[in-house]
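== Sequence and structure of one protein ==
=== Format: two labelled lines per protein ===
==== Data for this protein ====
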Amino acid sequence: MRRFRRILVVLVLALLLLLALGAGGLATALYAFFGSGKSVSAQGPQINLNELQSCSVVLIDLDRIDISRSDQLALLPDPNEELRISTVPEVNLNAGLLPREAVDSSILGSDTCILTFGSESWALTHSALGLPWLQVGENTGFTKSATGTAITFDVDSASNSTLIIEFTDPESKVEQIALNALVSYPNADSWVLGLAMAASALLILFVVLVVTVIVRSTKGSQS
């Protein structure tokens, strides 16, 4: 019976230590990847076309945006998913999202480079070749708009919308457009704090139990 008790105590102590180390390790990993507003980037389509260098405005229909997350990340609730638009070389951009039903009226009388994806590659056509380029900065029909060298829109807004991008520097020769995903968790810092506190509590309990076991063993041997 005494031997069984000792085995049970060892198992309980081992379990406590494993739980403490697991919680501490998970807290460290979450902070490294998502703490303080950090995001994980997932590579999306890279559009490489020589014709891009002659475009000032491009139009991309975002039919559906799917972001695949690992099984571990899929367990975390309430992710913040964003679409990040950038170029090579890096240039200043104006970009906006249009409802599909508003695209024709918004680009009427202006030219845009329309990018479409076929079975294996991207293709470029003009909406109105020979007409002036669409002035994205003057368009007021966007549901979302932004300016910068790299622009992000939340995935929910971008899905089933039309993305229009303007290269504001007339001398820029864009060689590539990258559409990548950013995944972050707004509650990550709270989770890290909770896991760290749980790990500390389990570790303290482990130390207390170890000391108690040692003291009792010492008293037993002395008696």
Q: What stands out?
A: The mean pLDDT is 85. The longest strand covers residues 80-88. The helical segments are 2-34, 71-74, 103-107, 155-158, 188-222. The longest helix spans residues 188-222.
